[in-house]
Recover the amino acids of this structure.
């Protein structure tokens, strides 16, 4: 079996972490399989893949392609026209890129080309040599990206099968490509030896430039700076908490992707926090490379996405760290927990509902411990590498059978 993985970015996002976990599992379970990774930028993923002994080929996107996103598309004719013009300007660099990608793929002649993000779903399907099957690994919703949905529908016949990170994402893809489209929901795995209840912790106060505060309950939003990750909801919720509660919020993360316009900035968030008068009740740590150590330093991990969350790797990781988690109740994220048993759930985008959940957890150490311990047990049942590989193996094997 030979598989070439195509990743549009090497940054530290959820799709890249999920890919690393899949590669680690395949290395362990199928050491004889030949794996290669082609990645369209340099970054932390490259070192992670190399550390697993998997060859990596960095084939950088031209800047215009790296920065292209379709976030603003669909909101008005002007935005659509602007997007199409940018696409037109992209035709030549994209064609050159396809040419180079085709050469790499022809050289490897893999059984399967596994693509890990929208741009690579398109490029992989177009560059596929005869004899290779294309598997789209869907980490995000397609239907709400108007242009991408059209494009994928158009080339779906060049993709043999798809895997979605949740049932919700699988349903979304069927709504785009038709009910007969072959898509298997497979949840991600997390490294249960890294995301553990016990282990090193980072000093969040120092990272945030705040005075160390003993005896406070630490509540953190761990997320990239994508606009829909709910930073505003989190800050609003912190402002709604009773002022006498001994609580401190942390925004952990930063911008990781190059796509234009898709992210909030630190300045924006700081100014919102200032206008809410949060003062040192909130700290901004920036990206923390060891997210397990950051989560362990928290009492409560918040997931606050305002749009439906395709999966929510952070939720699974926080559960593995035995944390009390509050999740936003929409999309794939809803599939991961049982409210009141192994997490609390709030209404997406509603600061009052989030503040209520945080308030309950801040006041009740027993509840935090009960949810945290149930969460670890659930993570050990649901998010193992073994389960991931057991689900992926027959899919790859079917694709490799002529
Ligand atoms: C994407 C999704 C996120 C998911 C991750 C891994 O980043 O937005 O919900 O956890 O991929 O599948």
């Amino acid at each position: 079996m030979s598989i070439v993985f195509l990743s549009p970015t090497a940054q530290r996002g959820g799709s890249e972490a999920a890919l690393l976990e899949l590669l680690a599992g395949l290395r362990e379970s199928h050491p004889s399989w030949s794996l290669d990774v082609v990645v369209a930028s340099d970054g932390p993923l490259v070192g992670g893949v190399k550390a697993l002994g998997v060859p990596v080929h960095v084939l950088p996107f031209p800047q215009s392609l790296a920065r292209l996103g379709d976030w603003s598309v669909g909101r008005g004719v002007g935005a659509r026209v602007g997007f199409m013009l940018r696409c037109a300007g992209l035709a030549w660099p994209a064609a050159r890129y396809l040419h180079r990608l085709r050469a790499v793929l022809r050289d490897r002649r893999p059984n399967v080309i596994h693509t890990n993000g929208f741009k690579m779903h398109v490029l992989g399907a177009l560059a596929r040599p005869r004899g290779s099957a294309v598997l789209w690994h869907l980490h995000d919703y397609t239907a709400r990206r108007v242009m991408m949905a059209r494009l994928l529908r158009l080339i779906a016949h060049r993709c043999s099968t798809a895997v979605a990170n949740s049932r919700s994402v699988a349903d979304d893809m069927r709504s785009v490509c038709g009910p007969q489209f072959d898509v298997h929901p497979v949840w991600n795995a997390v490294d249960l030896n890294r995301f553990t209840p016990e282990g090193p912790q980072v000093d969040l106060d120092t990272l945030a430039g705040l005075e160390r505060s003993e005896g406070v309950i630490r509540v953190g939003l761990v997320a990239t700076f994508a606009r829909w990750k709910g930073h505003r909801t989190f800050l609003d919720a912190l402002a709604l908490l009773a002022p006498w509660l001994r609580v401190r919020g942390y925004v952990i993360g930063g911008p990781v992707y190059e796509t234009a316009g898709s992210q909030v900035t630190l300045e924006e968030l700081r100014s919102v926090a200032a206008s809410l008068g949060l003062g040192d009740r909130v700290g901004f740590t920036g990206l923390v490379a060891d997210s397990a150590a950051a989560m362990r330093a928290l009492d409560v991990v918040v997931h606050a996405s305002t749009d439906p969350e395709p999966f929510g790797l952070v939720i699974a990781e926080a559960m593995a760290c035995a944390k009390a988690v509050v999740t936003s109740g929409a999309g794939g994220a809803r599939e991961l927990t049982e409210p009141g048993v192994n997490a609390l759930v709030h209404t997406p985008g509603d600061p009052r509902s989030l503040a209520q959940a945080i308030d309950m957890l801040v006041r009740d150490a027993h509840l935090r411990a009960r949810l945290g311990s149930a969460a670890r047990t659930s993570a050990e049942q649901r998010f193992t590498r073994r389960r991931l590989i057991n689900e992926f193996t027959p899919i790859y094997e079917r694709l490799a059978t002529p």
